[in-house]
Amino acid sequence: MAPKELLLSATLLLLLLRAATGNLRHENVIDRCWRGQSNWATDRQRLAMCSVGFAGKMRQNRGHGVTMYTVTDPSDDPVRPRPGTLRYGATVLPGKVWITFQPGTMHIRLAQPLFVKSFTTIDGRGADVHVAGGAGIVLYEVRNVVIHGLHVHGVRAQPPGQVVRPGGAVQNMDVGDGDAIRLLSSSKVWIDHNTLARCEDGLLDVTLGSTDVTVSNNWFHDHDKVMLLGHDDQHVADRRMRVTVAFNRFGPHVNQRMPRIRHGYAHVVNNFYDGWREYAIGGSMGPTVKSQGNLFIASTTDSANVTRRMPLVGHAEGKDWHWHSSGDSFENGAVFKQTGSRVRPKYNRHQAFPAASSGEVRSLTKDAGALRCSAGAAC
Ligand SMILES: *[C@@H]1O[C@H](CO)[C@@H](O)[C@H](O)[C@H]1NC(C)=O
């Protein structure tokens, strides 16, 4: 072969190899949108257009008016946060803010719950960020919030104290509740690629009329009560709550509430359930559940019920609630008890996405949780 031809065939071989390894990166529809980009660190705001499900695209979180802010100081003053801290960027800094962290490992122990403002993105990519051992993250009456790439664990109820709220008012806090992330009356929120474990109360609570939420690519493990959608049987405003739970990994060592839903609608799609003790999906007050393309692996035959209905005492046991399973896979004896009929999520074109088959779920969720990304390379 002439040197030129040799070069040509070598190039061809390289291209073929690249195509082949590209196919090995088996990614879900959200990850495929940004993880292959080697410039993710200089084009962080691309992420905002990668969300799917009820949160829709987070287009309000990006653009020229957004302040890029880097957390360099792990300390926390809940009343007068210093510039450089997470609380300063998430609560105090005005306007639209995109928060990143200096590379390396950072442990942040919040002295009081962190109140996140509207139009705020917390982006842990490129750092190893642990919000741990203190209070958790609270979204109260806010919109357009993204939380991506954090480890949140060991959250505990904190003693009463004062904390600054968005807008600058200082509030007296009672004893907290020990939730990792709690939404109250908040909407258009995307919780993606976080690792949540071992907290005192819940890992993720969506409450008090919150809606239009997507919970994707997270890893929930070693915990009792994982995810609560609607906290009160009496709170009928939660009838309009709509939440997408997609591409998450639940377990090992989880007990219940993946999620537990009251009143609203949950589209639970392409999640990996690696065992549970009491149940995986439960609810009360006539919620609607569309379970699609999930992989449910029961841990034992005694803990095989995927579903649990919690009717009010003296009422029928949820026979008329719409809980539907389509394309789910069940291993180790897992059982999903269906009732009612299938109710579609009615996504618009910014929310809609194709569900994968349950056979792909293991690989689509294998990188669930906070990722290790380095600038200059695909993540
Ligand atoms: C599983 O659910 C069925 C009803 O669908 C119930 O009779 C049974 O007791 C449940 N099993 C456990 C271990 O909770």
From TrEMBL:
Substrates-to-products reaction catalysed: Eliminative cleavage of (1->4)-alpha-D-galacturonan to give oligosaccharides with 4-deoxy-alpha-D-galact-4-enuronosyl groups at their non-reducing ends
Name by which UniProt lists this protein: Pectate lyase
Gene expressing this chain: LOC123065754
SMART domains, sorted: Amb_all
Pfam family, one: Pectate_lyase_4
EC numbers on record: 4.2.2.2
Pathway: Glycan metabolism; pectin degradation; 2-dehydro-3-deoxy-D-gluconate from pectin: step 2/5
Cofactor binding notes: Binds 1 Ca(2+) ion. Required for its activity.
Span of domain Pectate lyase: 105-302
Taxonomic superkingdom: Eukaryota
One MF annotation (Gene Ontology) recorded for this entry: metal ion binding
Gene Ontology terms describing biological process: pectin catabolic process
Signal peptide: 1-22
Protein family according to the UniProt entry: Belongs to the polysaccharide lyase 1 family.
Keywords associated with the record: Calcium, Lyase, Metal-binding, Signal
Calcium in keyword set: yes
Protein source organism: Triticum aestivum (Wheat)
Catalytic class of the enzyme: lyase
